[in-house]
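Blinded run. Sample ID left blank on purpose so nobody reads anything into the name before looking at the predicted structure. Input follows.
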Amino acid sequence: MRPYQLGQLFALPLQSAIRAQNLALQETISFIEQFGLEKGLAKTFRFVAERVIEKRIVDPKTGIPETQLKAQPFEVSIPLLALVSPPSMNLQEVNVEFGVEIVELKTEPIKSAVIPSAVLGSSLAPTLCLFTSLGQVNPTTMKVNMKIARETPEGMARLGDVLVDLLSGRPSETEAPSIKTPVPVERVPGIGTEMANLLKTKGILTVQDFLSATETSEKVRDSARTLGVSEKRIAEWREKARLLIGLKE
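Blinded prediction complete.
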């Protein structure tokens, strides 16, 4: 069996998780293209039906009003993607456990253009090692536990907020609904459908529910850990949620 560098073995689960997410995304895009689009235009589901309407008329001879029932045809056209959600799967967390057997210790200096080499020290990444059974116990065997957690970079999260605002529009103060009217949590700019679905599994269905679930710093911290986002993101969503339902500080 050919030995590999320790850094390569540690990188393998990360690369595999990224590759799996990339393949899942390709499947989603393929579904949208094949099922929902045709020559760049949205495929639609159409049907024709009839509805009965009432028409009040006055008899010109007798002057007596009467009601006539008339069947009126109408057509409904709905984009297919509005009826069927594209299959989507996002990795939230991956737990990896494996063993490695050290074959030959090697080091290399950590390089930096701004930090002195004496401060940086050396890396053991080029150490040669082999995959081994977790049950083996000897001085050269090491058990490795890795947890890969998904976290959206702040810049990408803010870009997502901008895109959501462009798609859904941000309501003005005159359009803000009354606090007495339940507002779905997905209406909060930046939360989006995926995060809203995750919130709903926790019983958070409305904007008011979200504000109640994040009203203290401890609840904000718990929500951030559960959703896999930063506490700063939760605070930003709270501010947008308050604006959405017309609350003032």
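Unblinding after everyone has recorded impressions. The chain is about 40% helix and 25% strand.
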